[in-house]
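Preliminary data (for renewal application), adenosine monophosphate complex.
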Amino acid sequence: MLIILLGAPGAGKGTIARMLVEKFGIVQISTGDMLRQAVNEGTPVGKKALEFMNSGKLVPDDVIMALIEERIAQPDCAQGFIFDGFPRTIPQAHALESLLTKKNMTVNAIINLEVPEEVVLKRLTSRRTCSNPHCQAIYNIYTMPPKKEGICDKCGSSLIQRDDETEEAIKVRLETYYEKTQPLIDYYCKHKAYFAVSSLDAHETFNAIVKRLQK
Ligand code: AMP
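Predicted structure:
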């Protein structure tokens, strides 16, 4: 199974992707998580990406495509995968199409998570992320707080507010989304695998997606 999750920053792509991973036993491919790991490990990709990420801008398409091509060739992707935060630009969507054609793969679902902007803003500023690069669990101080304040329920590491989740960076990320990523909705909406779901409550959104996928 191959799924593409679309939606603004804070639309819930990470949360929904993790729920789908559990349900279908496939792999989550989050370019954001991969880049943050590269930054933490100080790799050449991480060094290149850091400035773009901290200012809320997109990392260049060629860097992203190299990451994706390498990732989907790994054995754990054989059962399928969910792209979370990729593609983010029209050139990335074109490059993905060529890559999938080359690999004889087809997309089963392209899901657009729809959320009003004021909800996105509140979600992003109240989000906390596990600092452990191998965990990266997501919490929300209002709607999904950890059992112990500031500590990850899953691995016990400290929770942090990401550098790109300051009000300033969030503003740039949303502008970037409208300019570069939202055009993907027009690009994909005629695809037979495309559908949109409201993403206000994670469980309701997840159930709606599963129902649609099992049709
Ligand atoms: P995310 O966690 O998906 O919001 O990603 C965090 C940051 O990583 C974004 O603001 C971008 O700087 C960068 N990033 C993640 N995925 C992509 C992508 N597909 N294309 C370009 N930049 C990306």
